[in-house]
Amino acid sequence: MPRKYLGGSGQALTIWISVAASTVLVFYGYDQGVFGNVLINDDFLATMGNPSTGLQGTISSLYTIGAFVGSLSTIWTGDIFGRPKQILLGSIILAIGATIQASSYGVAQMIVGRIVAGVGTGMNTATASIWQAETSTLSKRGQLIIIQMANCITGFAISNWLTLGLSFAKGSVAWRFPLAFQIFFSAIICMLCPFLPDSPRLLLRKDKHQEALEVLAALEGNGATTESPSVRAQYQVIYTVLESENLKSYSWMQLLSGKGPAGVLRRMILGICIQVMNQLTGINLTSYYMSYIFINALKFNSLRSRLLAAGCSMDYLFFACMAYFTIERFGRRKVMMTSAAMSSLCWTIIAIVLALFESGRGNSHDLGIVAVTFFFVFFAAFGMGILGVTWVYATEINALEMRTKGTSLAAATQWIINYMVVQVTPSGIANIGWRFWIVWAVICFSFIPITYLFYPETTGRSLEDIDRYFERKPSIIVAWDKEATSVKRPEQFARMDEEIANEKLGANATVVEAE
């Protein structure tokens, strides 16, 4: 008898999967924002022995080292546990890390808690977007992951408002409670994941054909069964593409050395590089250190800095939600390039304003207003573009057989770059001042030609369409390839689906019956 899932079937089931995957990102966003606000709490600093600026950066950034390790671990554990169980494990580890942090009375204990929590976060962020993508329709895949990203910013906003409210409390509750509150999100995930299905594509890769059919039927909804023609057609397309990749006959090291089907290594590199682009926009300067920046770069007081940071988070959330209406309409490439251009412009203006501010030229009040305005504009530009595009693209671009490994490597790379940015930010602001912001302006601008030249469009394509595109060994430079840059789904891919459904619909019936 088919297994029953939370939400039943169809759209309701998809929504519950999205809720669980999105809660992971709420968790992630909350973790990004909470510690920067904890760092400016006087009681926290006194409890930790008033650490130096460098040590503060280390305590904050070691969380990302844990996340790097957690992301890498899913290369081996992601397919073994499956998507829901991997997220469940990551959430339990994260709750343990939150408990250690909230009960800390010294730097060493806090560092351990940060690393442990990071391991859980790394596992979750390397898995949630794959699970969402592999259980979504091609027309909604980008929008659902945008909802995940909006939830990430919701977590970021919650951390800012919660720490602002508790900043009026006396004693250690002002920083211990926000750190302990991470356990709340873990509890939600633990209540949802055991009752939701795994990815049908992963189940097929593990030769669990009947279970994959049951999940496809449940996701289809409208009374569909494992014998429904539409379910069988989906199953056959996925199975055919998986068999054509033939990656099971290659080892991990052979694929990394360039052997195996054409495009596999290239696709992994594209996924890794786009996550690097995400981290090198400068977003983590603001996510981790917004209040810190306002205090140390613009010389605002603590209350004003917290209020502005909380306001920035709401601006970020609003425009992250607006990306829902653009990512499928305009495509990944155009949205990415426009977002990068606007981000570069924001950092350029902020650098100019801070140069004037530090040299004493101009009215400091007016310069502060301009700087804060363009921090808000940056959040809007990043939230509407790079934020969602980089996460969904890293999941979409990898080959079916390599999706877990490729996405894990992309997430791990993202975290190690994140570590670098979080580690250097306090020292960068303190030592080189306004020049620090020029770096991010130049890097953001470089993403425009990189995206234009090397990144094929994935909007409007099924995950199997992307596999087919790379099977023909396209040129590394895709800018003048209409099939690679069009937002609309190429007609030949739709025809290929019809041919597979018509000619091979029952080809694997014996495989299913034998199981």
UniProtKB/TrEMBL annotation:
Positions of the Major facilitator superfamily (MFS) profile domain: 17-459
Keywords, ordered alphabetically: Membrane, Transmembrane, Transmembrane helix, Transport
Segments traversing the membrane: 12-30, 54-75, 87-105, 111-131, 143-162, 174-196, 269-295, 307-327, 339-357, 369-394, 434-455
InterPro entries: MFS_dom, MFS_sugar_transport-like, MFS_Sugar_Transporters, MFS_trans_sf, Sugar/inositol_transpt
Membrane topology, record value: Multi-pass membrane protein
Localization annotation: Membrane
Family designation: Belongs to the major facilitator superfamily. Sugar transporter (TC 2.A.1.1) family.
Protein name: Major facilitator superfamily (MFS) profile domain-containing protein
Protein species of origin: Sporothrix eucalyptigena
Origin organism lineage: Eukaryota, Fungi, Dikarya, Ascomycota, Pezizomycotina
